[in-house]
Amino acid sequence: MIHLINPLNLFDIGDGTKCYRKPTCILKPIKRFFLKTRIPPITGDCLKSMSQVPLMTEDRTTEENDPHNKVILEVGIPGDTWKYCVDRQALADKSEWFRALLMGDMAPPPSNPPPTICLQHVEKRAFDHLYKYFREEPINFNSVLTARATLDAAHYYLCPELAVIAVDYIIKNLNSSTVINVYHGLSLYALPEAEGNEQIPSAPPENDAAEIAVACTSLLKACLTVIDSAPDEVLREEGFEELTVEEIASLASRDDLRLAKESILFEALDKWAASECRRRGIEPTSHNKRSAVSDEIWYSVRYLLMNDQEFIQGPMASGILSSEESAAIVAKILGHSNHQDNDQLARCIAPYRLSTTPRGRKTPTKAKFGMKPGKKEREDNKKNRRKECTSQGQRACARVGDLVVRVLACVFD
């Protein structure tokens, strides 16, 4: 029997004789052991510090590799899903929601292969960013819509840091073609009455939900700024038809909308009402569209800011307004209404519903140092107003004959 007795490789053959032999049969296994375990060569310094090296434990690694501790998450709508094989405990340590799902009383029992849990309420790419956030990996968005879906996931799972990352990206890349999709449903996350507030609360949030609400409030303000600056493009987007009735009511009543024409808003409301009829399973007739939207919303359109042709070719031709309403509004637009016409207008339309306030214009401020305009300037303004009124009256009289024919044609049609 051969024994390794010293580092000089002297071996006792058995009869008391010692000889030198290269112990390849012993060194090869030892070499493989050192390579496998990656243990560095033992030196004098290593011997002094070995007492400070913690013992290796394989319990955690074995537990993570155990298929009984795994679960498969199938994320997304049916037919368009991604699957993730995750460790139960690792994900439970990152989220209380997943702790209840994976470790609670309703959690699926361990099995091999791991059980599958379907998460249909979250978009697959949004969950991918959420999973990266849990694993502390960098998050890079490729589109505003994906960032908006990630914001939904961050709100659902109460991840304020991820919500702030998504909001910052959206605000930097927001434009008129994406703002409606971002605006849709955002008020549910923001602070109460956020659309009417001028300032965002500066006090530190008390919890995760409050921190997310503050971030969403700033995003809502950014959305309204984009909508006010480019309403002509925004109102023509298909996403406008997917808004809730509360959302379209809020947008239609805004004084800051810089609309080129009020008929653009009416056309957008007309399309929304037609889509609402289809959602209800009814024919989108003029009567059904009028019933699908309240009178407050229909009269948020400022008809008196239209000219006669714009009103006749738009709201009047649509049939949504009654013939009495149309006739009264046309008379009001042309300025030919007398006391009898005013009484008829009051009977069919509440006067407060017909606003003449222009949109998108700030209240003019006083002159510098509070000085009033000079006398010459006031006289020039009066002359200009007289000329404008005279020219408007001449144009109105010239169009009366053509207008009467159009009104009668629309009524009889």
UniProtKB/TrEMBL annotation:
One GO cellular component, as annotated: cytosol
Residue numbers spanned by region Disordered: 355-391
InterPro entries: BACK, BTB/POZ_dom, SKP1/BTB/POZ_sf
Any matching Pfam family: BACK
BTB domain boundaries: 69-143
Source organism of the structure: Cotesia glomerata (Lepidopteran parasitic wasp)
Top-level taxonomic group: Eukaryota
Gene Ontology biological process: neurogenesis
Name of the protein in question: BTB domain-containing protein
